[in-house]
Fold:
Amino acid sequence: MSHTPETHETATTSETAAPPRHRSPKGRRVRIGVGALALAAVGAGTFGVVSASADSPAAANRTTATSDPSGRHLQQTTHLTVDAATRAAQATLDAAERENQRVTVAVVDRNGNTLVTLRGDGAGPQSYESAERKAFTAVSWNAPTSELVKRLAQTPNLKDIPGTLFLGGGAPVTVKGAPIAGIGVAGAPSGDLDEKFAKAGVAALNNR
Structure:
């Protein structure tokens, strides 16, 4: 399209310079027609090149993604779904409410990221963070936090690891012995009670 005005203007200039007795409507039509044919030929050639490039085997090879059929660079992991985490948290909270305890429940995934947190009616403001940290600690060491408290006697610097809380109330969720999540509870009068409720959440998952 960029050549069309130039071609048309060239034909008009040629007619203006010629004497009136040599003007020929037929000649004018011929000149413009030739220009149009030339543009059509250029356009057809361009589209032909694009079409040939798209259909050529070389172009197809460039756009084909490679894969690793052996899977040697991949690793499969098991994760707790949000629905399952919510079910476990609710079972934990129900167990606490049956004993008139006001607690907060947190469920974290294998990487320690919080999936679900339920704060029971009347639970203290400190219980929210404590529940998450207990869950994080349990999944990190794949052990109930009440057991991990005993390790502090030999390695007291464990408590300095960010995000951890070595108090009773955390329990890991495992599949074939490997941790996939952690449940933490805080707010009851003792860590033993907190952990009892956390284990009720784990049991709710194992019973389905």
